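Protocol step 6 of 9: fold each sequence in the batch and record its structure tokens directly after the sequence line. For illustration, a two-sequence batch is reproduced in full.

Sequence one:
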Amino acid sequence: MPALQVALEKTHFVLEGRPFFYLADTVWSAFTSVTEDEWKDYLEYRRLQGFNALQINVLYQWDASVPYLRFPFRRDEGGEYSSFQIDEAYFDFAERLLELATQKGFIPALVLLWCNFVPDTWASQRGIPMVMPFEAMERYVEYVVQRFKKFSPIFIISGDTNFGSQETVRYYLRALEIVKSIAPQALTTFHLQPQADLPEDILHSPYLDFYTYQSGHVKAEQHFPYVLGEKFAALTPQRPVVNAEPCYEGHPYGFTRENRFRALDVRKAVWQSLLSGASAGVAYGAHGIWCWHRKGAEFRGVEFSGEPLEWRVALALDGAWDVALTKFIIERFCLFGLRPAQDMVMAPNPEIRAATTFDGKTTVVFLPSPQSISLKLNGTAWEDVWGVDLEERRFFRPDVCCRSEVVEISALPANHDYLLVFIR
């Protein structure tokens, strides 16, 4: 399978020489929790929707639904699971799942070391098992990369991590080095806690290929999609940026358990990310898929995440079609390498986001609600203008008034969220 690459512009990906928009579904618990028949059904549905990548935790997800069907390690003489004893049968099954996924055209994005497996992260400091000894970590990473490199995966070095000490950095930096020594063509990134920054040693490593961030599931932090998008796009060195964990559809507002994120919230987070610097792609998550929840199972993340939906119910949530439409729009209008253009928006509302393509020929504006808006554009230079009613998934021609350097859009017809596309 051909490997994904970073485009020369450092803003997006290419696959076999063509621009590639990363659209991943989040299924952290696949290796521990799915059956082969469930996996086949799942893959076919997400393939039908247009997803092209799958984010999977190679090890067990500490806050998933239990019991697990499989476990990556064998028990030691004392009856405890030991990270020194890899269970070959677990990885045989994981390899079978990856074979089925890649046959359907999905790129695996594999998390190597979720934060509970590394010392001095927020999770390991809370006593969530199990921190790997450094030598066991090295042996495990070598084993996984050797075994799975044939699938041309992305290797996500960390999962939901912060960097509590230099020892944390040492673990992750060593894992990054091992990946590139064994699979130099594989792209690498780090999945971070929303408030985390990349340490300088990792930020400037020649082995890091792109940035991801997590805008998260706390209602009061839903400005993070655009704030963190701007932050990571401004980092040096420049690399493609992906929001790898916007709010999950169906997930309660973190810790409060009041209400749940809806398709509208997901659309908002996705488009605000894409137009604020995270233009290389996005991940979607359904609350019940990532933890592979079965009816009646114990869900270990209930304190923060509330009760998940049963996985088949979560699979059918409507917002997945919205993010699939996002990929269609990016490809249809060739919106690769979008650059933030917030100075074009003549409004004080930061939730309205604007971006232009690298060549300046196309401008895109996201409106979270119907409203009149003025934009600093050369009104005589636009050959074509499209509107997209994101809730109804309908394309239309908006009413445009051009006044010299200003373009005005009158109020839109329904109480929905919209996208405007201006083409020179």
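Sequence two, same batch, same settings:
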Amino acid sequence: MEPTLDVGQRVLVNRFIYHFEDPSIGDVVVFHPPAGADQGTVCGAPHSHKEACPKPTPQESSQNFIKRIVAGPGDTLAVRNGHPVVNGVEKTDEPYIRPSTTCAVCNLPKAIKIPPGYYFMMGDNRGESDDSRFWGPVPRSWIIGKAFATYWPPDRIGIL
């Protein structure tokens, strides 16, 4: 999640908010990834090298990941120059990312459809992030909560 978060930085997470509202595009969330995502890039379905992983493995990992939601249920998603293209619209106003156009998954022109009840996550360090492009969308039930502030180290205390 660099540059938004540094490695080892600590965050506060609202574990209750998604009991009252749906997650939104742009939210930074803590969640359990699909099984296998914490040990490498594992996709739950065969797919073209020109598209993101369309389906996660069915098992949930016990690890906690933190990423940004870039697409939600029913959206179509492709990736152009490291930016999500959601429902045909490229989101280029992302001042929080570290862009990269040279990574293997920064250009995925073939769109996938996000299944009902699933969310597509991407890290802010687009060229180095291991995220839904590799292991697929995440079911809402695996989302733990919304990260809203940082508290450690003291010189990086702030609101996300």
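Proceed to step 7 once all outputs are recorded. Observation for sequence two: The first helix runs from residue 132 to 135.
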